[in-house]
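Hi W.,

Here's what went into the run:
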Amino acid sequence: MSSRQQSAPDHLHRFVETPFVLTYSCGRFETNDMELLASLQEANRLESALVNHGPRLVRLVRDPEAPRGGPPATLICRGPVRTITIGMGTVVWVDVERREILGFIAPDVSASRVSTDLLPLALKLLADDLEDGSAE
Amino acid sequence: MTAHLCTYILRDAELIHRRNLNIAGARVEFMTNAPELAELLRTCSQASESGSRSFRMQVSVTDRLAEIDPRPHFRGLQHLLIAHFGETDLFVYDVLRKNAGAVVSRSTAADVNFWRHVALPISLGILGATAGIVPVHCAALAIAEQGLLIAGRSGAGKSTLALALAQAGFTLVSDDWTYIKDEGGLLANGLFAPIKLLPDAVRHFPELAPLRVTRSMNGELAFDVDATRVFRVAVGASCRPRNFMFLERSVIPGAKISPVPSDLAARYLQGSVERVPPELASAYGERSRVLAEIAKLPCWIFRYGGPPGLAAGELRRFVSQRMEALIA
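Here's what came out:
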């Protein structure tokens, strides 16, 4: 990336670094939240689910500036992308075609909730679509 | 968690009310389940010719009640973005597949100001580049086929000067964000947004005195004014830019226009647009090309101090001289 582009604004927080990495046989998990990575490693079944369901990339950004609270969880399905939101601050996208799970986690959503609840749901959405090919 | 999920599936087969819209030069394939929203969006479509490329927008209207949150929340990773406007109003953008999917409440669906001033500008800002439309932070005006782009940092007075120019006979295309494409030459488009003036603008425009300031999306207090209705100035949908002007304010009264090298314009333009990740390079390839074309325009710095009316007169003389030079 050019120095000009590096000086440009990043209002969407696309370029937040995610230095904590877990690699598995078919992909890579990245986060900026060590607690989240630890929680994921503790949940042994989750790591095997990553291998079985095969997302090429999981990138979850802990977002301290995101708003807390808000509306209940929502799932929007459009074409090959599933979008899970919790409140206004947490969003997880599942791109079935690209086999990617990407998202921002608000401060009020705990690491354990991500590893026991949110990420398994994302993996299930990915697996369901891969199995029945229902992505439009 | 699945049991508590409120699920929306945006299927083409259920979004049966469809319109092809022209929004600031971009062709938008709009689909919804609500006939009244399709009709409202038709009134937002502009008459001028749209480009050959398009992006798609699918909107599901729900019966869940919600208020628009005055502080929207935006995030993006790689090709996927979200814009959250409150309890049920959220837009998901997929830049690689050139589409937006949205779920909105019935009250939001019926709010023409939300679509004109929030949802469509934001959607165009995110997806426009995939259809060859580049949002540039500048004002655009024209007189006698001579389009003028005016850039400057936030708070430099672009809107104040744009309004003064419109009062001096220019046609106002936009005062803040301009959507520019290059199809047989540069074309700068506006997007029916009201002109935004800071509270101190009332010193120069007494018409503002009876109006109330409101808090805009970035938290600023400002007058959001329909320029045609309040000031009776001419407003146009687009213009052909011929000059690119950087605005700088001075405490010294007077006005001065100086040429500057085009690489200054290139640096400004590249530095003002959102960074994009490498995987979107091809989707945004057009953006770099259009920005390079804008930077090739004759580029000037306009420094002025004193009332905006005097500055507008100076710029009008400048454009006339440029036209005479071209004819000669």
